[in-house]
Amino acid sequence: MKRFIVPLSILILSVTTISCTDKKKEFRKMLAKECIETGDKQFSDSKVKAYFHQYCECSSEKMSEQISREEFTKMKEEGNDAALQAKIMPIVQPCLDEMEKKMNAGK
């Protein structure tokens, strides 16, 4: 019986790890999609849209690594935009800086 406990434990740990990875991936995709949709409505210039899409991919990647979907949803539901922005800005700032650099170089 002991021979099966270790492999079973490894299997459960693997499934849990995959599940967490999938959750992060889905959260990242959701963030990127919402960001891109917002940018597409806000910007008409195709170059700006392209830079913004890159920003969305970058920021969603960074956010999904540092904030859980549950934490993000809770902060949005509480309607505390200032707290949400204070949490997110340091995370996405490198992405904003990169987008600004690319936009200034493209002028």
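(ticket continues) Second input and output from the same batch:
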Amino acid sequence: MGRMKEVFMQMREIGLLSDPGDLVIGSKSLTDRLISLEENGYWVQVGPMAKLRPQEFICAVYVRGKSSWVTESCKSSFENPSDAYRWGFSIVNNLKEKK
């Protein structure tokens, strides 16, 4: 089991993650997609920007390098986390196609 999968499983067990089906983008839960990405050398991170009005989110896409994670792309001004994750997943899909 990959380290991130182990962390997510522990978070589920202690109640920090609700049923992963609550966060579905496409046909997979967000948790399952992130675990799959990490196992394949990618990571998508979404977080809120500092300003609250209007509320905005930022997304960063990382690729596992030889000794650290490398920021591949970053974009802000998303109105909600779902849009940010969709953008991040599309960037990962484009990167996979280039390989």
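Agent notes: The chain is about 40% helix and 30% strand. Residues 1-39 form one domain. Closing as not reproducible unless the customer responds.
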